[in-house]
Structures are given as C-alpha cells and as structure tokens.
Amino acid sequence: MLQRARDETQRQNALPLLWRIHLTLGKLYQARRRYEAAEDSLLAARNIIEQLAPNIHAGPLRADFLRGAYDLLSLTPPPTPRRTAKRSYDGLTEREREIAARIARGQSSREIANALVISERTVESHIGNIFSKLGFNARTQIATWATEKGLVKKDE
C-alpha cells in the first residue's frame, strides 16, 4: 500500500508528502530486515528533504524543518561497514570474497580449505553460495568477477 502511495505521490510530484512516505517505507524495510531497500528509501527521503529546504524562507523555519527531518532520519541506524562492503560486492560475505579471490589465483577447493583451515565441503558450500548470488555456473566466471572487483590484481 505504501509503495502505491509512493508511486502516486511521485506522479503528482507532491514532495512534502513523498519524503515522509520514503521515510516510513525505509523504517518498514528495516523492520523486515530488507536493509538495501531501507537504505534506498531513506536516501530518497534525504534527497527530497534537500530539494525542499531551499523553497522554505531562510531562517528559523528552514532550520527547524531541516533539524526535524534529519532527526527523523537519524533514528535509523547507519549501515555497518560490513554491510556496506557486502553491498558493494554483490551480496558476498567477507569469507565468500576471500574464497573468490583464491579461486581467481587458481587455487583448488582443497588448497583453499587447507589455507583457511576449513573443510573442503565448507569451501564447496561457499562456492555454491557465490554461484547463486552472482548467477554464475563456472569458477572462471568467479575468477573474472574477483579480478574486476579488485579482490586480486590481474598479474597475481
């Protein structure tokens, strides 16, 4: 229902209402542990607030509006560095990124398992997760992705 309200409000360009809808959606997404969607909605709310502020006569009214709006946004915790890193690497965890880098260096599952002191089966599970998250089906695709993302240098 909120998404339909957001879409209609966007269509009408009703910015004073739209930022509040984005704020509410962001909080709802957080409660449902949909953190990426929450971040997107909260960023949209912040952008709209910044568009609205210059239209308010400079002085106490504008300052109060900005303070109140930002206070509402600040009630939502910022993403952790771990979550930010995960998001920038297509959803891969730190361990999955480490395994992807080792695949790019040409290591076998057994070599990876020995280096990380985990079982070969655990390595294979991580590789399965990487395939699933990235939509790949070959180790060479993982190696290319890891190189493009800077997890390994091209000459390693």
Describe this structure in words.
- The chain has about 160 residues and is mainly alpha-helical.
- The chain folds into two domains: about 1-80; about 85-150, Orthogonal Bundle (Arc Repressor Mutant, subunit A), CATH 1.10.10.10.
- About 70% of the residues lie in helices and about 0% in strands.
- The protein has nine helices and no strands.
- Helix 6 (about 95-105) packs across helix 9 and helix 7 crosses helix 8.
- The longest helix has 18 residues, at about 35-50.
- The mean pLDDT is about 90.
Q: Could you provide a short overview of the structure?
A:
The chain has about 160 residues and is mainly alpha-helical. It folds into 2 domains: about 80 residues; about 60 residues, Winged helix-like DNA-binding domain superfamily/Winged helix DNA-binding domain (Arc Repressor Mutant, subunit A, Orthogonal Bundle).
Distance between the termini: 51 Å
Question: How many structural domains?
Answer: 2
Unreliable spans: none
Mean pLDDT: 89
The helix-and-strand class reads mainly alpha
* Number of DSSP helical runs: 9
- Beta-strand portion reads under 5%
